[in-house]
Design the sequence.
């Protein structure tokens, strides 16, 4: 007798029915301290919630401000999701478990009408045009926002030219002021700077922001003139958006979320909806994200470096003043005076991070046996820069001696709260002595940076420069222009 088949059929049907009606994933809500620009991930997070049961509730902050909150103690959040954890690493060696989720480099989004001059540009080119008043941009506040801090790090690292992370000695002189001259507006965070750019797009030329933000702006329909993405060729600060576990009790839900976010389908969704680059190299990028980003710059490893950059940011917009005390005795004839004229022409017309900038007053004190001329140029635009470029072109030399310390004494009477740069190729043989100068100025109101070349006395120059808090740069075997650049921005 054959066994009944009905139970087998029923069991198979029950199995199929059970598979079709499997229980949904366990629902878990996680609170997340998140960078402000991640508000654009809401559609992706809805898919995450549907597929994994993990509901990420984002509480937005600027990356720098959020990192500071995390460093001083618990914020009560289960996770953190910031543009980078490198700022947090400055505050604490004990970083939470992290998973990189997506990538976006910091770029300059430039209006098409201005972009031609900046295609293939470096940060030095951007800074030079900003210093001349030819590029006005918006950027986020680096005291709050990761994108704003990344901008300062990018510019300062490129200016240092070491190819390594910034060290304290790389930021003793302020190389940011030319770049910051172009800052037309700020905003608390990376998301807010984009909104502000939309409002003020007719007043400015560019925005310094993440690549994703610039591409999203172009796709938004809010711009009257599209932005071209400029990837500075001397280096990019890349954000990798780590998802960090703060509450160990939520490890299982964290793992589910992190694994889903790294899956190929999620990586494609993030890329298509937010224009951030996928972490997975196997995920084919959209056409707009195939542009090479070049060299990634290192994040500083010490808090004092960041503090110096923020101090420079706080000084932006202050009227700078520098007094150049320039030897025009006959010993300067030939290559020496030619080098001096070339240096001033270059710093007026180009000069990268070190060029003369709008808002700066440059005072020229020419001397030989006495002060020959004092001329102040307040830079308000291109015409003033051109005037400064040619200010020394026809200046005559004098054979009545070299009164170095009398000329420096004159400079100190007009320097105000600025800086003095002394350039000489000879020894003092007229006017007051170095001892007389130091006796007159026991508490110097400004630092003197002396550039030595030719037969100038290195010991005496060094003694006076150090007494004022400055130092000597030796240009006897190198370029006078490079020597001037070395001390530009020193305070």
Sequence:
């Amino acid at each position: 007798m054959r066994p009944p088949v009905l139970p087998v059929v029923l069991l198979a049907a029950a199995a199929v029915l059970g598979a079709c009606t499997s229980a949904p994933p366990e629902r878990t809500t996680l609170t997340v301290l998140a960078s402000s620009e991640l508000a654009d991930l809401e559609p992706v997070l809805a898919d995450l919630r549907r597929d994994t049961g993990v509901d990420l509730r984002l509480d937005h902050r600027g990356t720098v401000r959020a990192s500071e909150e995390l460093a001083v103690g618990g914020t009560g959040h289960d996770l953190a999701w910031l543009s980078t954890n490198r700022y947090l690493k400055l505050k604490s060696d004990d970083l939470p478990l992290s998973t990189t989720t997506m990538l976006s480099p910091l770029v300059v989004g430039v209006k098409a009408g201005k972009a031609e001059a900046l295609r293939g540009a470096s940060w030095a080119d951007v800074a030079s045009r900003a210093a001349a008043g030819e590029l006005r941009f918006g950027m986020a506040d680096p005291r709050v926002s990761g994108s704003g801090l990344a901008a300062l790090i990018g510019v300062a690292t490129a200016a240092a030219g070491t190819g390594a992370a910034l060290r304290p000695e790389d930021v003793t002189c302020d190389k940011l002021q030319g770049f910051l001259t172009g800052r037309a507006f700020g905003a608390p965070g990376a998301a807010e700077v984009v909104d502000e750019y939309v409002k003020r797009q007719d007043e400015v030329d560019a925005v310094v922001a993440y690549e994703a933000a610039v591409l999203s702006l172009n796709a938004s329909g809010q711009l009257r003139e599209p932005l071209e993405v400029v990837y500075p060729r001397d280096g990019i600060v890349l954000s990798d958006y780590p998802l960090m576990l703060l509450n160990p009790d939520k490890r299982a839900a964290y793992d589910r979320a992190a694994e889903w976010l790294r899956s190929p389908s999620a990586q494609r969704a993030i890329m298509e909806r937010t224009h951030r680059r996928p972490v997975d190299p196997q995920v084919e990028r959209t056409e707009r994200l195939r542009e090479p980003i070049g060299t990634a710059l290192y994040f500083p490893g010490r808090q004092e470096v960041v503090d110096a950059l923020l101090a420079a940011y706080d000084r932006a917009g202050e009227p700078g003043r520098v007094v150049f005390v320039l030897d025009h005795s006959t010993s300067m004839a030939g290559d020496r005076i030619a080098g001096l004229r070339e240096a001033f022409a270059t710093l007026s017309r180009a000069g990268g991070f070190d060029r003369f900038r709008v808002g700066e007053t440059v005072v020229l004190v020419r001397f030989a046996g006495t002060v020959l001329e004092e001329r102040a140029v307040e830079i308000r635009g291109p015409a003033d820069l051109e005037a400064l470029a040619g200010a020394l072109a026809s200046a005559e030399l004098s054979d009545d001696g070299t009164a170095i310390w009398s000329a420096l004494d004159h400079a100190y009477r007009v320097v105000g709260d600025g800086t003095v740069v002394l350039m000489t190729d000879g020894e003092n043989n007229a006017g007051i002595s170095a001892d007389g100068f130091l006796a007159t100025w026991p508490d110097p109101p400004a630092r003197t940076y002396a550039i030595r070349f030719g037969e100038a006395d290195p010991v005496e120059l060094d003694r006076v420069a150090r007494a004022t808090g400055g130092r000597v740069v030796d240009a006897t075997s190198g370029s006078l222009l490079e020597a001037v650049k070395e001390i530009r921005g020193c305070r």
Q: What stands out?
A: The two ends are 105 Å apart (CA to CA). Residues 62 and 73 are 17 Å apart (CA to CA). The first strand starts at residue 28 and ends at 35. The mean pLDDT is 91.
